[in-house]
Structures are given as C-alpha cells and as structure tokens.
Amino acid sequence: MSITRKRATKKQRAIEILIRLKREYPNATCSLNYETPVQLLVATILSAQCTDERVNKVTPDLFSRFPDAAALAGADREELETLIRSTGFYRNKAKNIQGATDKIIREFGGKIPQQMEKILTLPGVARKTANVVLAHGFGIIEGVTVDTHVKRLSQRLGLTEHKDPVRIERDLMSLLPQPEWENWSIRLIYHGRAVCKARKPACAACGLVDLCPSAQA
C-alpha cells in the first residue's frame, strides 16, 4: 500500500519518492559523456551553469585534443578556452581544469584520488563535483549530489528548508539510506528535466503529486 503525504513521516515520504522515481526512470544514469574519471571531472566542471547537452557537444573535440590529465595540464590556455567557450564562464573553468589536472599530476600520481577530502583540494571542485566523480567514476557513494534540479525539487517536496547545497545534502543524507544517495540525485535530475521544471512544473502529469506539499491544485 502506498503512503500519503499527510500520514507519512518525512523519511517515509523520501523513501516512497525514491521508489517511484526508480520505477519511473529505471535506466537513469549520468548524462555526461566520458571515458575516464579525469574526463568525468572535467565534464562536471564544465557543467556548472551549463546544460549537460551543451557539455556533451564540447567534450568530443576537447578530449580528442587533450585526452588526459597531463595533456590538459599542459594545454595552451587560449586554445583550451576556445574549445570550452560555449559552456560559459570559460576563463574560470579553464583555470580550474588546468589547476585541478596539474595537482592530479603533481600530488596524486596522475590519478584522481578516491577520497572525498582529497578530491575537495582540487581547484574548482566542491562537493557536487566530488560526489559525481566518486559515484560515477569509482562507484563510491560518499554523499548526495545537489545540483539545481535536486535543490529545487527537494525544497518543493518539503524535504529541506535550506538553500545552501551543503545543508540540503545533509538533510537528504539523513532521510535516505547511503546506497541510495546517488540513485536519488540522478533520478530527481531526470524528473526535474522532464516534469518538475523550474518555471512551470507539470503537477498534473507528476507521479509524486500526492506526496508533494507544493503541488498545485
């Protein structure tokens, strides 16, 4: 028997939402195209304030020219900026990409470390990027990836009152079992793109409507 919003605790609602999302998007996975953890790191840095679709149009040429950490770290900055220009904020992204890959070469033997605290020392890497790389690059679930979709939907679903991504992540981690943290994020992202859009959520077509305190009548 499925639960309802009024009768369920916040944790029960979160679990039920996850169950329904997994049923609705059974094959959901990371939308970024990559072949190595380093490429995933770079693609995730590029995805800030940019759609995954746009990033996937940029990375084939980028990774063909600069396929690994050493090549990216030693790239001509102007050429790198030109290749990633369409993702926006390209100067800062190029600086972070080269700073991160240079540190990977110098301090981590050319490989991305598999510990959260070490990944967070890389330039341009906060918890969102670290969670994506650990989960999809190494199969390590350390936290909940909080992007704009996860932030918006978690607030609309009444699972957090915070605006800060770190606090939102902490709230979600307390509601969901650790093995499901990335399942939650990736499927909520799919739902945010398809149904619960920023400007006009399609509540009438939403399979979570009976669990959502923000649902429109």
TrEMBL record:
Q: Which InterPro entries match?
A: DNA_glycosylase, Endonuclease-III-like_CS2, Endonuclease3_FeS-loop_motif, Endouclease-III_FeS-bd_BS, HhH-GPD_domain, HhH_base_excis_C, Nth
Cofactor stoichiometry and binding remark: Binds 1 [4Fe-4S] cluster.
- Quote the record's binding site residues for [4Fe-4S] cluster: C196, C203, C206, C212
Q: Its domain of life?
A: Bacteria
Instruction: Name the keywords, alphabetized.
Output: 4Fe-4S, DNA damage, DNA repair, DNA-binding, Endonuclease, Glycosidase, Hydrolase, Iron, Iron-sulfur, Lyase, Metal-binding, Nuclease
Which cofactors, if any, are listed as required?
Answer: [4Fe-4S] cluster
Q: Quote the SMART domains the UniProt record gives.
A: ENDO3c, FES
Give GO terms for biological process.
base-excision repair, AP site formation
Q: Which GO terms describe its molecular function?
A: 4 iron, 4 sulfur cluster binding; class I DNA-(apurinic or apyrimidinic site) endonuclease activity; DNA binding; DNA N-glycosylase activity; metal ion binding
Supply the SUPFAM superfamilies for this chain: DNA-glycosylase
- The top EC class, named as a word, is lyase
Q: Residues of the signal sequence?
A: none
- E.C. code: 4.2.99.18
Tell me which residues make up the HhH-GPD domain.
Answer: 46-194
Write out the catalysed reaction.
2'-deoxyribonucleotide-(2'-deoxyribose 5'-phosphate)-2'-deoxyribonucleotide-DNA = a 3'-end 2'-deoxyribonucleotide-(2,3-dehydro-2,3-deoxyribose 5'-phosphate)-DNA + a 5'-end 5'-phospho-2'-deoxyribonucleoside-DNA + H(+)
Report the Pfam families cross-referenced here.
EndIII_4Fe-2S (PF10576), HhH-GPD (PF00730)
Q: Is Iron-sulfur a UniProt keyword of this protein?
A: yes
UniProt key word DNA damage = yes
**Which family does the UniProt entry place this protein in?**
Belongs to the Nth/MutY family.
Instruction: List the HAMAP family.
Output: Nth
Role summary: DNA repair enzyme that has both DNA N-glycosylase activity and AP-lyase activity. The DNA N-glycosylase activity releases various damaged pyrimidines from DNA by cleaving the N-glycosidic bond, leaving an AP (apurinic/apyrimidinic) site. The AP-lyase activity cleaves the phosphodiester bond 3' to the AP site by a beta-elimination, leaving a 3'-terminal unsaturated sugar and a product with a terminal 5'-phosphate.
Put simply, this protein is called Endonuclease III
What lineage, starting at the top, does this entry show?
Bacteria, Bacillati, Cyanobacteriota, Cyanophyceae, Spirulinales
